[in-house]
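Q: I have 459 residues here and want to know how they pack in 3D. Can you give me a structure?
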Amino acid sequence: MNTYFALFLIATFSSLILTPLIRRLCERFKLLDLPLAGRKTHSRAVPRLGGVALYLSCMIALSMLPLVDNLLTQSLRQYRPQIFVALIPATLVLFLGIYDDLRGTNAGVKFSALGLIAALFYAMGGRIEALSIPFVGSVELSSTISFIITVFWVVGIASAFNLIDGMDGLATGAALFSSLVILVVSFSREVPLMIVVTIVLCGALAGFLRYNFNPASIFLGDSGALFVGFTLAALSVLGAQKATTAVAVTIPALAFGLPVVDMAVTMGRRLVSGKPLFEGDNEHIHHMLLARGWSQRQVVLVLYAVCATFGLLAMLFTQTGTRSTGFVLFVVVVVVIIAVGNLRYHEVDELKAGVKRTVGDRRIRVANNIRVRRASRALTKANDLKELFDAISYLLESGEFAYACMQIGHPAGGEVNERAVRAIDKQQAQRGLELRNGRIFWSWSHTASAEEVVDSGSF
């Protein structure tokens, strides 16, 4: 335990010392994030290579392990290959992020590069080989499906943390909460490798947050957001190989709750609105909360609370079974949908309106079909013209018709038709019924209101 605490302190103090140094270097060489684009929430130029400070802090702490000889370091020697499985791809992701921070690259190239690095991670042994489906159980994956899911998961989580890095301290805090969840679960499962790497990451993030919280003096940048996201995703995969599949799948999904929800909402919005999936915008969850008039600090603190809630739920699953997992996940999904629906997204409002229109139209169609069936039955039972006209009127009053007319002529001539009209009038006057040139003429009309005309699309 003393070794774990020492690693945390080394990573924390390394981050506290290195971050200001990296900040000064960025200021000296003008490596700054300028507040030019509409998606920016800061008003001044800020250094952006915070990921370098995070990475170096983690490496310094991990490099201390060979200098210590105790039971922990001895047990870690057997996990040395797995450490490189996570760190080598994570280092490549850091370099990709640095290049993006310095030179910039389009989203397609960045995602392709992330995909290649994720494939390397898979080839080195980082694999999701089984999934647990609530009420079904564990499902073993074929090598092809395992590769696809592993790459999708790692790239998706790295990108999710990159997407929420749009406000001072948000991505750093979300990553810290996620790391704490993985750390607690690692302690409960007694996985030394996971504990060591995660506690080092926690220390580096805690030290960096001192400078990244609002008002931030340095940003994570793509280098930091991608590095942290990729490392956490890799740790969750490696941890899944040492845990039951129910825990392995559910806990990381909840631990990364806020980034995952934000990415899902973002991709869904862009699909609905027809925008390119990788096109940036200023309608992420934190942007929508800012639009309500909240300050940046208020938004970040509220989202920290959301991260903490997801984290507590994730840790809850270490003590629950698969059936309760499915139920709680269902409740979480419902709550998330309701919460997102209250963020006033135009795409969500349009989907709601579309559902209402669909349900309303279906209800009208059902009512009309019932009316047609009743009218058909009345027509088959009609004994005279009045009952015939009444049945047809009932059908036409469904609202889908504005005008109708019918002419009836008897082969025997006008006298028969005239007697038929008089018979109807004796029973009850029939609106729209008259005799023209010895033939029965019956008409029906409906005066539509302005609302009906506009709603029908005929206006």
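Q: Anything worth noting?
A: The two ends are 76 Å apart (CA to CA). Residues 352-456 form one domain.
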